[in-house]
């Protein structure tokens, strides 16, 4: 065989290998870690497993999501920071930890903002929910969808809360943000900011008297074992969402980005169904486990509203009066069924 022919064959083989290599590189699997704070049995954890499954399915395994439960990647604030910097790819949870960088998030700490889930769904799945995700963009976060942690309620180990005055003097764990701190100070409590992962131990050793979280979360984290007095107040609604690190997101092909958005919306709808089912019997489960569950009377809730109004007025000016006015207007529309 002539030397020139051998060279042509060699070149052809090299080109074929190069093309194959390029194709394999283009098909390289992208893998991201999703971290959240709640235990594997919580509906949130089940829904995030569903999200992982759907992402693999809808991207034909081009994108994989590995879920880490129970704050195994760190507290919410640490996971959010890691997702901003890119050392973690995906975060699911609440956003109080970045309210300093996105002041509009502070509105979710306003007491008695929403009255029911219909209002929540209308507002958060509409333009206001999207507007808040857009505010997160400078923090290198891409929002995929909103869902719930739920309405927050109060637990403590000291006494049943039958009146607004019964809250006074309680040392309560609160989320580490100024609105929450000032709200509980206005109610006469001694608020103590603390990472979620530290709550049970702090309750157990009596470093704090109580805390406030949704009923399902109270049950799945066994807070009722160390806080037998539970008071239904529904004082704050805490939204949760899925956000992705911007650099990781930009590595994903547009068609797979859309697939991930679809997976997020389906898994969050799945989450809502799980939460609805869990909410049906959570009070019964808590009572069966020995907890004393009571609902704060409407006239006492009215007193809480009055005490916290100055806090809302103060933070309305900080968050932005136009934004707060627009947000309340959307709630009013939902409340009126428009």
CATH class: Alpha Beta
Poorly predicted runs: 9-26
Topology as a string of helices (H) and strands (E): HEHEHEHHEEHEHEHEHHEHH
Query: In the CATH hierarchy, what is the superfamily?
Result: Bacterial extracellular solute-binding protein, family 7
Question: How far is the first residue's CA from the last residue's CA?
Answer: 83 Å
CATH architecture classification: 3-Layer(aba) Sandwich
Shape: globular
Named CATH topology: D-Maltodextrin-Binding Protein, domain 2
Please identify the oligomeric state: single chain
Question: Measured on Cα atoms, how large is the radius of gyration?
Answer: 24 Å
Q: What structural class is derived from the secondary structure elements?
A: alpha/beta
Q: Report the total helices.
A: 12
Count of domain modules: 1
Helix content: 40-55%
Secondary structure: elements and pairs:
Elements: H1 3-26, E1 30-35, H2 43-58, E2 63-68, H3 76-85, E3 90-93, H4 117-124, H5 127-136, E4 141-156, E5 171-174, H6 178-186, E6 190-193, H7 199-204, E7 210-213, H8 215-220, E8 229-245, H9 246-250, H10 254-288, E9 292-295, H11 298-319, H12 321-335
Helix pairs in contact: 2-10, 4-12, 6-11
Task: Give an overview in words.
The structure is a single chain. With 338 residues, the protein is α/β, with parallel strands linked by helices. It has one domain (30-335): D-Maltodextrin-Binding Protein, domain 2 (3-Layer(aba) Sandwich). The chain is built from twelve helices and nine strands. Helix 4 crosses helix 12 and helix 6 (178-186) runs antiparallel to helix 11 (298-319). The chain starts with a helix and ends with a helix.
């Amino acid at each position: 065989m002539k030397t020139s022919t051998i060279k042509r064959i060699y070149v052809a083989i090299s080109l074929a290998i190069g093309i194959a290599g390029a194709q394999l590189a283009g098909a390289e699997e992208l893998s991201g870690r999703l971290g959240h704070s709640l235990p594997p049995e919580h509906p949130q954890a089940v829904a995030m497993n569903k999200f992982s499954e759907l992402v693999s399915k809808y991207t034909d395994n081009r994108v994989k999501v590995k879920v880490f439960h129970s704050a195994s990647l760190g507290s919410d604030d640490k996971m959010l920071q890691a997702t901003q910097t890119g050392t973690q790819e995906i975060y699911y949870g609440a956003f109080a930890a970045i309210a300093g960088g996105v002041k509009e998030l502070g509105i979710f700490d306003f007491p008695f903002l929403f009255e029911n889930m219909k209002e929540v769904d209308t507002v958060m799945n509409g333009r206001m929910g999207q507007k808040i995700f857009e505010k997160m963009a400078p923090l290198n976060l891409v929002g995929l969808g909103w869902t719930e942690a739920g309405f927050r309620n109060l637990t403590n180990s000291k006494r049943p809360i039958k009146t607004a005055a019964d809250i006074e003097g309680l040392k309560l764990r609160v989320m580490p943000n100024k609105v929450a701190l000032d709200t509980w100070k206005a109610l006469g409590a001694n608020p103590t900011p603390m990472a979620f992962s530290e709550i049970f131990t702090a309750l157990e050793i009596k470093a704090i008297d109580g805390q406030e979280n949704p009923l399902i979360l109270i049950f799945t984290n066994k807070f009722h074992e160390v806080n037998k007095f539970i008071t239904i107040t529904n004082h704050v609604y805490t939204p949760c969402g899925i956000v992705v690190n911007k650099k990781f997101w930009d590595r994903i092909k547009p068609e797979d980005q859309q697939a991930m958005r679809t997976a997020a919306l389906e898994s969050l709808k799945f989450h809502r169904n799980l939460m609805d089912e869990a909410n049906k019997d959570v009070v019964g489960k808590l009572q069966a486990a020995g907890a004393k569950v009571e609902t704060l009377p409407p006239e006492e809730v009215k007193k809480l509203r009055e005490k916290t109004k100055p806090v809302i007025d103060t933070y309305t000016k900080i968050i932005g009066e136009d934004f707060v006015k627009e947000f309340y207007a959307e709630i009013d529309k939902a409340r009126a069924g428009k």
